[in-house]
Specification:
By secondary structure, this protein is an alpha+beta fold. The chain has helices at residues 10-21, 35-38, 51-54, 103-114, 169-175, 240-245, 275-281, 337-345, 350-353, and strands spanning 28-30, 46-47, 65-70, 78-81, 87-90, 94-97, 123-129, 133-139, 145-149, 155-156, 162-163, 188-193, 199-204, 218-220, 226-229, 253-259, 265-269, 294-299, 305-310, 326-329. It has a six-stranded mixed sheet, with helices on one face. A five-stranded mixed sheet has the order 17-16-20-18-19, with helices on both faces. A hairpin with a 5-residue loop joins β12 and β13.
Length: 356
Amino acid sequence: MHKFSQPLSRPFAIAFGLLCLSALPAAAQSLPDLSEETSQAAPPAVVTPALGSAASAYILGPGDQIEVRVYGFEEYTGPVTILPDGTITLPLVGKVPAAGRTTEQLTQELTVILDRLLVDPYVSVTLNALRPVVVNVSGEVYRPGPIQLQGETSTVSRSGGEVSGPPSVSTALVQAGGVTRMADIRDVVVMRALPSGQTVRTQVNLWDALWSETLPEDLLLRDGDLVFVPRLEEGELLDRRLLARSSLSPETVRVRVVGEVTDPGEVPVPPNSSLSSAIAIAGGPTEDAKLSEVAFIRMNDAGEVEQEVVDLRNLVDTYQVQDGDVVVVPKSTTGSVLDFAQRLLGPLNFLFRIFE
């Protein structure tokens, strides 16, 4: 037997537009829009920009809801949704292209346009709600595949409530079920196809968010982006306890608690839980439970079954459960907990059968 490791006016208008733009979360930034810079490039290529140059302001698109304000002219003031053709409509002006611009750029353009009709217009454009985007998340997450991310008005918290926030890399990982314990969140990759045929590839380090005093890069996502979470190299370890307590981990992991507990079976357990917590979630031990010899069984990353007998008489321990763990609470009259587990779970290759 062996123990497990425990890791885990324009000046004013422009300034106002910048101020409104800064209200977006500082950590949520978009990948660069290189369509103008790369439109002359002939063959498709992969561009890997430096992380510091990867961030740019949010690019407006169809479905985004904005607030246009022209001070002193109420007829030009109010909420507007960018139409599927990428335009907005203003009185006496008609359609104005809005998609592909930042709020600051649109503020400047509207100021120039309205200056032909109004006297010293002071214009501001703010972002009310982001359009939904569909991205594909793959790699070390619990529910890989395409997911739809809502805008500022509806993102998911670990407690199941709603938290405002843009469609960033971290919100995508949360909605994909959270990262696995073997995820290397120091090197999350975001791939974006540009109209020119090129592909932008950007690395995002989300690990720094868990311990650093500085706010890390957390890119805003766009329709069609691919988010890939790589697996840790063999021998590499991150603090799994810190990761399990973070918002990037799944809300629960599946642990089987069998034997002398009130409600045996597979139970959803928070990923930073101990063995004692898993037993408590399974209804707690029965009067006949032999807590001095609880079997803790796990299949490691190499596919090998590991087992250990743990004394939980104080219902306190420092173990951290993982998805797929099995906890066997024997009866007080049982001689060997592993013999009990064999009888309980089946005599033939029981250590492997329980993980099927």
